[in-house]
What does this fold into?
Amino acid sequence: MAIDFLRHPMVRLGLYLLLLVPSAGTRADAGDTLLVLGDSISAAYGFDETEGWVQLLRERLAEEDKPVMVVNASVSGETSAGGLARLPRLLEEHRPRWLILELGGNDGLRGYPPRSLQQNLQRMVQLAQEGGARVLLLGMRMPPNYGRAYTEAFAAVYPKVAAAEQVPLVPFFLQPVALQEGAMQADGIHPTAGAQPALLEHVWPCIQGLMQAEVDARSCTP
It folds into this structure.
């Protein structure tokens, strides 16, 4: 007696299990990961994390129907050395397609040598690229009371890293809010919750370009 192949219980079970196992194409369609590695500026210091620019980025991507998982690995007080120490595990765990690197401010505030900052940032970019991630570097600046020699040497680190590793750079992440009245908290270092949308708008074109692999390797400042 002939057996209806598709009605056989074992065949139906096999087909069901096959549907549960995603193919490589299905995984890609399900979305990719964007990792943000930063300090208090990206960790929403002083207000609820849901108001921070990284959360606003999640919402913007969702609004545009982009299936991207945004992982915020930013920690208040983080230095470039701390970020470098944590990055290998983060890359292994999340396997990001993109990395936004926002570190260095705490190095500067503590007076660490710009050369060390450059070495740490450059190594982080290299590790991310070796793991297949594209990198966007967000630059920082030091206030003038640190002295001209130090502030200029510090600011020069980010273009040097971007040029050496051929990654896009936002020269000064806080540019739209740093001198805007009421945009900074009482400490004069951290942006307010109300300033977060401006930060996102400042880097959004660069993030779009990063995802499309169309950003200029020298600068993607809007």
